[in-house]
């Protein structure tokens, strides 16, 4: 009884009215409950569902076949059946008319032939060949039917009003269905019966005062709130889920990285989407016959194909570095460097091209620089790879810095930015850094993932750009993969997804 009283005290008004209309002796349909409770059908449906959920009543569902009017049936009911329209027109024409003239006047389409057949079958008309063509005439037998109303029309009216059909009318249903005037639909008819717990709750309602859920300023001023019974709040009731506006998680993550780097003294570099092979490869001491410069690893622009190179002094230095090492003491790559290849325009395949541009543009020593930008590489798209993705590139120039400083900084980036628990370093080879290192981090779902390539820019590169003997600690992070670690995303494609379910459920990233 205590449970029933507790439930009863939290019932909505429509639930109370519906419950008070029920009794143990009868099961009420939706329509019957609406009539007995005084609620509209929508309110009754909600009340039935809520009472069922609270075990105060049992809702029963019974599949029933219901006959409804089709669109042609509704039109026939409003304008008259085709056969009735034909009879009425003939009456207006004095009892007869020419076939083609009748068809043109009625504009019934295919229904005209049916109207002729129906009227002829019931001996309401005759069809004969006359002097002016085929003549249609009334027989006089149609008068009683028109006066009393056509049976088919009465059936349509009853179906529209949801009235019960008689035996003779039911026999006409197949014919009306064949004509497309009616449709049969399988519907679910709901009814409700009060439960034992509902009876207890109903008894509890009798002892409750009239409740209010509105606390107005007038009630407070007059003090009438003291004598009122306020409706209890049920904090366990399910409520609609609200989806507040928030920033796209990956974009917010990138903005967070930018802020952290600039707060740490880094300057952001310009990062154009298009560059030349000169900046993407040649300045970086990558030979023109290197496999990474082939069509299978990079994209090329069809039009325009070539761009302008920087001043001749820099081009000459890069050419010398490739051919014999320039002034560094290196042997270089020992081949004839081609200036036309270096002019080719391409989408940037890595962000180190932007570091080369910045070094050529000018830097401060000591100095820290970074860029976050889009790069493009042909690849097979899967959970870890895209053909268009982002990289975070950066370098630090300081005469006192060593390779150990670089390793410490990379580890700090992986832990603080990516939220990594474990990191590993591997020796690797890059044409433009020496020594070179790769850092991998552990993801609980995807295992070990490559995050970053790094190293100290080679003398052949730095000397050509005008910085001999200056150490530059450089790195290129796969920022997308760092984001996967930080945001808990298993598939890299979700970073760029417009899937509303993912975006709504994604955690908010602070900036």
TrEMBL record:
It is an enzyme of class 6 (ligase). GO terms for biological process: phenylalanyl-tRNA aminoacylation. Gene3D superfamilies: 1.10.10.2320, 1.10.10.2330, 3.30.1370.240, Bira Bifunctional Protein, Domain 2. One of its GO terms (cellular component) is cytoplasm. The keyword Oxidoreductase does not apply. Keywords: Aminoacyl-tRNA synthetase, ATP-binding, Cytoplasm, Ligase, Magnesium, Metal-binding, Nucleotide-binding, Protein biosynthesis. Residues 253-497 form the Aminoacyl-transfer RNA synthetases class-II family profile domain. One of its GO terms (molecular function) is ATP binding. It comes from the Archaea. Its main location: cytoplasm. It is found in: Cytoplasm. Its EC number is 6.1.1.20. Belongs to the class-II aminoacyl-tRNA synthetase family. Phe-tRNA synthetase alpha subunit type 2 subfamily. This is phenylalanine--tRNA ligase.
